[in-house]
Amino acid sequence: xxxxxxxxxxxxxxxxxxxxxxxxxxxxxxxxxxxxxxxxxxxxxxxxxxxxxxxxxxxxxxxxxxxxxxxxxxxxxxxxxxxxxxxxxxxxxxxxxxxxxxxxxxxxxxxxxxxxxxxxxxxxxxxxxxxxxxxxxxxxxxxxxxxxxxxxxxxxxxxxxxxxxxxxxxxxxxxxxxxxxxxxxxxxxxxxxxxxxxxxxxxxxxxxxxxx
Length: 212
Description:
Blueprint: H1 2-16, H2 25-69, H3 72-75, H4 79-96, H5 101-124, H6 126-133, E1 137-141, E2 144-145, H7 147-153, H8 157-166, E3 175-180, E4 186-190, H9 193-196
Antiparallel strand pairs: 1-2, 1-3, 3-4
Helix pairs in contact: 2-4, 2-5, 5-6
């Protein structure tokens, strides 16, 4: 009976108060809100930093794969090469891209910024440009095909002829020099008429009539 009376008194007292909570409770709630906001901000910042690191790793691996594949993959891409490249890109992107719109924005911004920065550095530094993109490689000198250069670049003789046909040449004959550029495309310069009459040694160097 006493317990019921005390409970009734407690309920009445609780309802009669304008503020049923202790006076310090509002301050405690404010502190909790501030602490929760700080924790959320820290978590967001950590998520963004993690996504930035994953995007940088994705771009670095993609650049490395492209460099190891050689210039052929850039300019003389076959259907199979394209399928392999797309597959690798999708797998890497699936691994590196976390869920959420914010992560997607951070991923795109990081990859785009990294690519722009690398392009700027390559334009100013020939050494870094050579490391990242390679250097032009002569494939034909004075109508003489360098088969060793073809093998080093992973090109076949048929692919070389296909590249020459795009430029309007049916064969290596009459070509002074054909170069596999760092972009993977083949460029060629035709011989002059007087050069075509000069003999050529095994290395593709022109010889004078006296040496011949």
